[in-house]
Amino acid sequence: MPLTLASLVNHSALRLTVLAGADRLDTPVRWAHVSELADPVPWMDGGELLLITAMKIDAADREEMRSYVRRLVRAGVVGLGFAVGVNYDEVPGALVEAAAEDGLPLLEVPRRTPFLAITKAVSAAAAADQYHAVTAGFEAQRELTRAALAPEGPAALLARLAAHLGGWAALYDASGAVVAAAPGWAARRAARLGADVKRLRERPAPASAVLGPDAAGAEGGDRIELQSLGSGRRTRGVLAVGTDAPLGTAGRYAVNSAVALLTLTTERSRALQDAEARLGAAVLRMLLADEPGHARAVAGELYGALLDEPFRMLVAEAADTDPEGELGVLADTAETAASRAAEPVLVVPEGERVVVLARDGGAAVAACIAYARTVEARRGAAGAEREGGPAAPGVAVGLSAPTRPAAAGAAFHQAEQALSVARRRGRALVEHEEVATGSVMPLLADDAVRAFADGLLRALHEHDATGRGDLVASLRAWLARHGQWDAAAADLGVHRHTLRYRMRRVEEILGRSLDDPDVRMELWLALKATTGPS
């Protein structure tokens, strides 16, 4: 417990007498300081018991004492000790009245009590309080270490930390999701701090933030402190603690110990995950090399269950710049969702890409789809703010159809094809089913295809611009009718011989034969690319 004025008054060896401010004796005392200056305020930090003999002030002057006491109160001085029998035989009434008016505790110090005795008492009490705090902090560290080694791991550690602080504690993973909280009701409060946790995660580690009672997750005057976890510059998690007052020395020791232990646990888990990732990369290479038997043997118990059921292949790619770190967040999202659902997942970084192999219909696939849609919505909102400008670059995801190990290579190609379409369309996510069952027409929106179409049809458009015939419209009608002269001529409202003449002119101008099915296909696609899907 911190030393208070009441503790000094009750100290039998000091023989102090209270003359004013008896109702404020529970105020903590940080230090005792002797000063005979008329204005000692510039040398005060606040929280001091000031000891004087009134050598440089007129303690009997009421106005001077009022001004003197008010300066002390504004400076945060918590008490005034006046030694009698030195310059004054008793404490002057002017000083007593001024102290009473401003509520400043005034203590009479008898001549036989030296100021040194008082400063020693304050120093000894401060040292004892510090020793108690350090001892309590070390004890908390031992308890937290034992909890971290328990089977419950972080959950047990959070429970001990919350009990030690008399508040609550919560742990967030790298994606910002709450993974554990203590007591149980704290999970609801922690979940409302998502925006603050996200801002902290975006800062280089180590980082911390203190949220006041008006924060989103604060209730009942909570003071919330956030601490990042991780030894590198990338935050691996966040610890949140909520208390009803600022942390003391013992509480600070406990929180620092929890941060160190959770960081150690997180980094150890990361090292294990890195080893698993290398094994997963080997499994993926074997699957893509059409060696499902070898892949299953290497996968063992770690990834074997993933290969026993239908899975989907996901290929994600970042743009040239990925300022939001979306690719890394996508990988963390897949791993976190799979961990919560206790399902296997294989995440393999490949340069500017990430390949994910996850159970069809599982939590990891659903989480990746949800994240991609969130990115796409955010990108669309950003484009709207730029008044229809292009979407901001970011992550694009291609997702294969459900498959088995024997067809993993085909699934990978499906995901790559879907990714290519996503890039061309400015989408964050395209599933293979959209490419396989949709129309081929949207694929013609590519600038290179349009450039080819314009070049192929330019001579016909130039001919029509002279007013010598409508060759482009005639070609479109003839191709749409599969080369049926009468039907196409009827659509155009001309005689079939006129249409035949026009098609001969098309062949002459283009230097290509309409009897060639490849030529007809190219012309039809060129017409569709320049006019858009009908």
UniProtKB/TrEMBL annotation:
Pfam families: HTH_30 (PF13556), PucR (PF07905)
Domain of life: Bacteria
InterPro entries for this protein: CdaR-like_regulators, PucR_C-HTH_dom, PucR_C-HTH_sf, PucR_dom
Residues that span the membrane, as ranges: none
Domain PucR C-terminal helix-turn-helix: 471-529
Protein name listed in UniProt: PucR family transcriptional regulator
Domain Purine catabolism PurC-like: 9-124
Organism expressing this protein natively: Streptomyces hesseae
